[in-house]
Structure formats: structure tokens, C-alpha cells
Amino acid sequence: MDKIALSAENLTKIYSKNNTSNKSVLALNKLNLEVKQGEIFGLLGPNGAGKTTFINILGGIVMKTSGKVHVWGFDLDKNARQVRASIGIVPQEVNLDAFFSPKKLLELQAGLYGVKNSERITNLILKMVSLDKQANSYARSLSGGMKRRLLIAKAMVHQPPILVLDEPTAGVDVELRKNLWNNVEELNQIGVTIILTTHNLYEAQDMCNRIAIINKGNLVALDTTVKLLERIETKKIKFKVEDVGNFEKIKLNGVKFSKDDTQITATYDKNKFKFDQIINVVKNHAEIIDISTDEGDLEDIFLQVTNR
Q1: pLDDT one-digit tens code per residue, 88-111
Q2: Could you report the per-residue pLDDT of 244-266, keeping only the tens digit for each?
Q3: Fewer beta carbons within 10 Å, N or C terminal of the chain?
Q4: Distances (CA, A) of 140 to 129, 149, 155, 173, 229
Q5: Which residue segments constitute the domains of the chain, with CATH numbers given?
């Protein structure tokens, strides 16, 4: 039986009306989800969906309105200190003291968490995130990718079993993004449970074992990445053809055909039509040179469940 690293039960957060607004805001609406130990769990949603509110509740920055939260077996209401010790949060914003070195920043962070000198693993953490060579450099001299990795290192000083990454690759180029994900995978391989929020749906599709999608505070999808992708009903077939001159004659009720200079694309419901039906309609009016298919991706699911 899979052990549960984190769970939320009927988690609700209502931001009360203030001086600038007469309306209360329902940020989380009876959210129910479980994160299994050792997995990489994706938490997705459009801006304003409630992702940041959820993370801030875990971090103690925001007080929940109602519901239950358990982290590593500890109840947030009864064991808040143990909950904080069981989780490390990597924020989206780069908040580093420019005049401290990575090593000093980690030592300071460990002190804030009450980690004894004899129990600190500063050098090991720096090596894990590939910053051991920059251990004594000023933080201001680090590249964008290095600063992101240093944020991960800061979140790891108290050796939490759960790591939350809030948009970790925002503003990071392709090469640095790849290095960052390598670091995350290595942490996961040694047993750290990862919770990831990202706007990059391709990253989530590649990295996550399971994915939850929330929209306007509501959980609208929660399943393995594979099963979410199986929900996609729309399929595309792209035909590279010799001539698109007879395109207007290519018709089949329920199938949408489009074209460019050398290609005809058929978009259809894969549950209603068979592959060879589409091919036969096209080849009756055009000489097919090549065929490729597009089964859809996580972006299609995201748009489908958020009605976008």
C-alpha cells in the first residue's frame, strides 16, 4: 500500500472582503487530494486557480478557513512545527541576499531551522545542486540557473522529505532548465517527494507521475499522467500530399479538414471514426506522400478541463 506524504481534506480558503473590495474570494473550495511518498506530483492550474494559496497554507504564510491538512503524518492544526520541518518550499521569486555566499546562506538557513552544527550537510547539499565550486562566491555573481538551484539548496537544509517547487524554471533558458530537472530527478531518486507547480505543461507531462488540475479553487482533474492523456478525444492526422488542388472535394461529416501548401490535416473524434476511414477519404482526392499523427498532449487536457 502506497504511503501518503501529504493530504488535503475539504481544504477551503476564503479571503474576506477588505477596504478595496466588497466581495469575499473563494480561493480553495473543499480541495481533496493526496500525494504519495516518493512521487513527483504536478499541481497545475491557470493564474488565480489557488495553487499559490495552497502552497502558502503549507508554508504557514496563509491560514486556512476550514478543512484538514496532513504532512508526513502530522496534522497542520496540531503539529504545525513538525509540518514545517517536513516540507521545503522553493518559491517562484528569487529572494537571495546578494552579499552572502551560497555556503553562508545555507548555514544561516540551517540556523533558522535550528539544525545543530554537527547535523548540517551544507557541503553535501551544495554538491547535490552542482554549486560546490561556487560555495564561497557572492550570490550576486551567480547566473539565473545557479540562483534557482541555490533556492532548492536553501529548501533542503533541514533535510525535509517533501520538496515543493513553485514555477522553478520561470525565466530559465533551455540548457539551465535541463540541468535543474536533472537535480530534481536526483533528489527524487534518493527518496524526496516532489510537488511541482508549473505553467509549462510539457515539463509536467515529462516529469510528473500524477497530476492534479485546479481551476477557480476547485479540483477538476486528478490522475496519473498516462490516464489523463487517455482522456483526449480529439486526434489529428497530417497528410503530406503531392497536390492540394482537390481539397474542396475532401469531405466527411464530423471531420474537420484544413490545408496549407503541401499538407492536409484531419481533426476528428477518435471514438467516432477509424484511422482508415480518414485515409480513404483523403486518398480518393490526393496522392499521399507521408502520414503523421498527433494524439494530443497535456495542454489539450488542461484546456478541456478548465473550459479554455
Answers
A1: 998 888 878 888 999 999 999 999
A2: 989 999 999 999 999 988 899 99
A3: N
A4: 17, 14, 19, 18, 42
A5: 4-229 (3.40.50.300), 233-305 (3.30.70.250)
